[in-house]
From TrEMBL:
InterPro entries, alphabetized: UCP012641, Zinc-ribbon_6_bact
Zinc-ribbon domain: residues covered: 4-95
Top-level taxon: Bacteria
Protein name, UniProt field: Zinc-ribbon domain-containing protein
Organism per entry: Thiomicrospira aerophila AL3
Length: 341
């Protein structure tokens, strides 16, 4: 994540709608990954550039409560919602007291996801071969709302449609799931990054890269349902740490890919943040995987040490074994060759 400053000099943050120092409105242009300060005139955001010039945008339809989306659209864009908000198709019942805040958190995490995808040059707008492209349903189940039909909502992906249990946006629910699933690093953003990995698998893997994929991750044609049943019944593969980034990654090559993909996005975003705060000079570039890993391991040391000083758990309890590195390298090569054109 980048750092942003208002024209008055105050540091402002990615999801901010106003500068706390001067009160100016803030709007984020995802195409430039830039947070502007300015003013709003109805549906138009007038960005005030430091040189005194102005630039006009449309505000996202979700700029109001509860989402408070600060993303902008080009004036001639036919859409009313920003590139992220318009991928949401179902939201949880806004008459239930907790749901407005859940929706805001879900959208904020999604915008963070989109920002990283954009930084990597990945297309978020869908593809003709996948029905309607990337889209999201945020659903509730009877564990948190007895009035809904669904007994159990599982987070998952199907041909571009990502379903998330809206309750994952609750700290309490997330904490309970962390314990239950033994996933101390579970997070809303992590869910988005994992599920979108399944989507990009469908988009980026073509016949030649599929052969290579199977060499690195295994054969994805292996019975998926059976693999997951076996994982939940008998647990992860023994010594999974040697070959997989997480226990769950050992359940099936598809899940291994999505877990490793999520990890790639975690590293990409966190390394950019680390650079912005002076922890490294490294700028992610094409074909520099070794340097990318080297810089990441330096940043991890600092990150974990800072948390230990605060009496908190390591934010990065992962081990990058040689096999896991080869999987990350495969993803890096694929993104380099297909996305950053
Ligand atoms: Zn300001
Ligand atoms: Zn929006
Ligand atoms: Zn998955």
């Amino acid at each position: 994540m980048q750092r942003f400053y208002c024209n008055c000099g105050q540091e402002v943050y990615f999801a901010d709608t106003h500068c706390v120092a001067c009160g100016k409105e803030l709007g984020f242009d995802p195409s430039k990954r830039h947070l502007y300060c300015g003013r709003r005139d109805g549906r138009v955001f007038i960005a005030e550039l430091p040189n005194g010039a102005e630039k006009r945008f449309k505000v996202c339809d979700n700029h109001h409560e509860p989402v408070r989306c600060n993303w902008l659209l080009a004036l001639d864009d036919p859409h009313h919602q920003c590139i992220s908000c318009r991928t949401t198709h179902i939201i949880p019942d806004q008459n239930q007291p907790k749901n407005p805040l859940r929706w805001r958190r879900l959208e904020e995490a999604k915008r963070r996801l989109f920002d990283t995808l954009i930084s990597l040059g990945l297309d978020t707008r869908g593809a003709p071969d996948i029905i309607n492209g990337l889209r999201f349903n945020f659903l509730e189940d009877q564990r948190t709302n007895p009035n809904v039909d669904l007994e159990f909502v599982l987070t998952g992906h199907s041909h571009g449609l990502i379903t998330l249990n809206a309750a994952e946006a609750d700290e309490g629910f997330l904490h309970a799931m962390k314990e239950q699933m033994n996933e101390p690093y579970r997070s809303l953003l992590g869910h988005f990054r994992h599920e979108v990995g399944h989507y990009y698998w469908e988009r980026l893997l073509k016949s030649e890269s599929l052969v290579q994929f199977r060499r690195v991750f295994g054969d994805e044609r292996f019975d998926y349902g059976q693999a997951l049943r076996s994982y939940y019944q008998y647990g992860p593969q023994r010594n999974w740490q040697v070959s997989f980034i997480s226990a769950y990654a050992s359940s099936h090559p598809f899940e291994d890919w999505a877990e490793t993909w999520a990890h790639y996005l975690h590293i990409t975003d966190t390394l950019e943040t680390a650079r912005m705060y002076g922890l490294t000079d490294y700028v992610q570039a094409r074909h520099d995987f070794e340097l990318w890993v080297k810089e990441w391991l330096k940043v991890v040391k600092v990150m974990n040490a800072l948390n230990r000083s605060m009496g908190l758990a390591d934010p990065y309890p992962f081990v990058l074994s040689p096999i896991v590195m080869s999987k990350l390298r495969f993803i890096d090569d694929l993104i380099d060759s297909q996305a950053r054109i």
